[in-house]
## 1
Amino acid sequence: KLEAVIFDLDGVITDTAEYHYVAWKQLGESIGIPFDRAFNETLKGISRGESLERILRLGGKENDYTAEEKAELARQKNEHYVSLLVNLTPADTYPGITELLSELNAQGIPAVIASASKNAPQILRSLEIDKLFRYVVHPDSVKQGKPAPDLFLRGAEEVGANPQHCVGIEDATAGIEAIKAAGMKAVGIGEAEALKAAGADIVLPNTAGLNVELLSSLL
Ligand code: B16
Ligand code: MG
């Protein structure tokens, strides 16, 4: 029996992945490290601090900044990103998500957020779906980010679910790896090839086709 559904946020609940891209791209250009969408894919699901490290490494500048200067760069990126979030409204929730959450609530199956983002609670409130989640894992409350399983395991634990009876939903390869490392069934949203290679049990092109019957059939 399906005991809990553990959702990624950026790229699964809404398209904040695009805002992260815009904000990191500008930050990168401001320090002379331009990058494209393909590189941006490798930042998905990765924490703010680690994303910055990867950008600096791309430009061969990882030793050019002190810890304080890196913290300031991360702060600038987040300030820009948060300024883009004011545009979010309930209409930005991806297709099928609100319906799936209502269905889960009606059946008493907990919905949980396991996002690497510290801005997750604010985003859920802007989309007006915060009340439909039983628990939101705080990224600072676990030792390791994705692709380690910590965020997903904590989510299951908080709602008393056995990980083997949970389904995780992710758009990032690091996230699919985290779900599989947690011993859960994994649904990938997006490009089939990379997500399948990361271990997804099923890949859908978008969220519109998600429902409780489909998720239950994976167990
Ligand atoms: P923040 P997810 C991740 O969210 C994003 O995919 C990633 O691009 C971002 O750097 C990370 O959250 C941290 O976000 O800077 O808001 O704390 O996909 O795990 O929901
Ligand atoms: Mg994501």
## 2
Amino acid sequence: RVLVFGSINADTTLRVERIPLVGETVVAHDVQYASGGKGANQAYAAACTRPGVAVLMAGAIGDDARGAQMRDELAAAGVDVSLIREVDGPSGTALITVDADGGNVIVVAPGANHRWETRPEVPVTAGDVVVLQLELPLDIVEHVARTAHAAGARVVLNAAPATPGAERLLPLVDCLVVNEPEATALLAQVDVELPVLGARLDLDIVITRGADGASVLRRGDAEVRLPAFPAEAVDTVGAGDAFVGALAAALAAGDDLLAAARRGAAAGALTVSVAGARHPQLSGDLVDDRLNQ
Ligand code: ADP
């Protein structure tokens, strides 16, 4: 099983000629609504790419229509949504404004994602793969990591977005996945090189490098470079989430780290080839096709 503990966000994207200045109003020529949140995107990718693996999503939505819609979409993709709580108030929301050059400004209102009155129960057993990111309060993420680690589950941490203090989670983690800026931010906090960190903490580390593929460092071994799969990049949003979800599902199915990272890279390449954070037809067969190309 894969248990994703994380964020669920409703994204609203406005396309404008240019980003307005303070006090100014501009007219957008397009508005798009989409379901996002790193946690939910990763659960989606896990469920789509490995249908034989049970995928559960734990997190919180608000008591609004978009919350219910986001939960229903995950359920339709095959994710078990019974651990998603509905809380009073709005769902997590991201307001994204994109200008004609593709530059963007983003405001995130965490909403339900930050409403945890008590520490959640973590229904994990040994053998589960627990997937975490940093869009929930850090002490909640730490609690889940600690509980999962103690239960003998495998903890995959996608340390995104870069968050001060996240380094304290690392002793509880089996596999760390970060993109290049996140790796730089984390290294600045721990003050050692990645292979040393991996060896010291007995930690697998995967660094995603966009169109340059990924690096895999198994428990402090030398870096193995995985090339990216060919893709015509339309929109790179969500590539990292697809990578993490597909990797986690592959680990849960028993693949070794390198094979799992290759499935992640294939899912990432598929996701950049479509607009939006989720590939609408993502499937195990599509990933297999990309792997065999
Ligand atoms: P993030 O979205 O977290 O910044 P990356 O941009 O590193 O993550 O993308 C995650 C993975 O998706 C990469 O390791 C790579 O395998 C794949 N990927 C990303 N961009 C491309 C691209 N332009 N072409 C092919 N694969 C890509």
